[in-house]
UniProtKB/TrEMBL annotation:
<protein>
    <recommendedName>
        <fullName>ER lumen protein-retaining receptor</fullName>
    </recommendedName>
</protein>
<keyword id="KW-1133">Transmembrane helix</keyword>
<dbReference type="GO" id="GO:0016192">
    <property type="term" value="P:vesicle-mediated transport"/>
</dbReference>
<dbReference type="GO" id="GO:0005789">
    <property type="term" value="C:endoplasmic reticulum membrane"/>
</dbReference>
<dbReference type="InterPro" id="IPR000133">
    <property type="entry name" value="ER_ret_rcpt"/>
</dbReference>
<feature type="transmembrane region" description="Helical">
    <location>
        <begin position="182"/>
        <end position="202"/>
    </location>
</feature>
<feature type="transmembrane region" description="Helical">
    <location>
        <begin position="98"/>
        <end position="115"/>
    </location>
</feature>
<keyword id="KW-0931">ER-Golgi transport</keyword>
<dbReference type="Pfam" id="PF00810">
    <property type="entry name" value="ER_lumen_recept"/>
</dbReference>
<dbReference type="GO" id="GO:0015031">
    <property type="term" value="P:protein transport"/>
</dbReference>
<keyword id="KW-0256">Endoplasmic reticulum</keyword>
<keyword id="KW-0813">Transport</keyword>
<feature type="transmembrane region" description="Helical">
    <location>
        <begin position="55"/>
        <end position="78"/>
    </location>
</feature>
<comment type="similarity">
    <text>Belongs to the ERD2 family.</text>
</comment>
<keyword id="KW-0675">Receptor</keyword>
<keyword id="KW-0653">Protein transport</keyword>
<keyword id="KW-0472">Membrane</keyword>
Amino acid sequence: MNIFRLAGDMTHLASVLVLLLKIHTIKSCAGISLKTQELYAIVFAARYLDIFTNFVSLYNTVMKLIFLGSSFSIVWYIRHHRIVRRSYNKDEDTFRHLFLMLPCLLLALVINEKFTFKEIMWTFSIFLEAVAILPQLVLLQRTRNIDNLTGQYVFLLGAYRALYILNWIYRYFTEQHYVHWITWIAGLIQTLLYADFFYYYFQSWKNNAKLELPA
């Protein structure tokens, strides 16, 4: 564990808490893409298949349970909560997210470190996480006006991945034989997808204006 890994985990956790705060307290999921949340639920389900068979540490297990539980809870809130589901932007959240899953799965079958079920599912989750934010970004471009909590949620998600890149760089120079090209390339692609959002987020912060993305 290093400071970049810890900061990345805490930023990721903060993004989840911000989204749950918005949904549970305000009883609204306006501006939140159900498609992205479903993809994240699949990402964590595929990645943490070993949660009860491969104990690393209490911290590791608790974080896995938090991300699994929160991702499926968010999907349930948006789909089934009698108040929250009314605010869901169904007509604008039309990104065909299932078409992201098949290429990621095929890529995981071809590019992996070990051809086993768990390893393929782990690799699939890495590839899918890299593009899972796309439906959310498309929805924000369509709605344009973004409330503060939604903007903070997406910003924290992007910051989490950027901090993990720093974590990988740190480990590369401090640990022998630490080379994970699959994770590095997927993480870089994921961070680059946030570049446009980051630009407009900092512009709105700098000008003390409401965050608004171009159509």
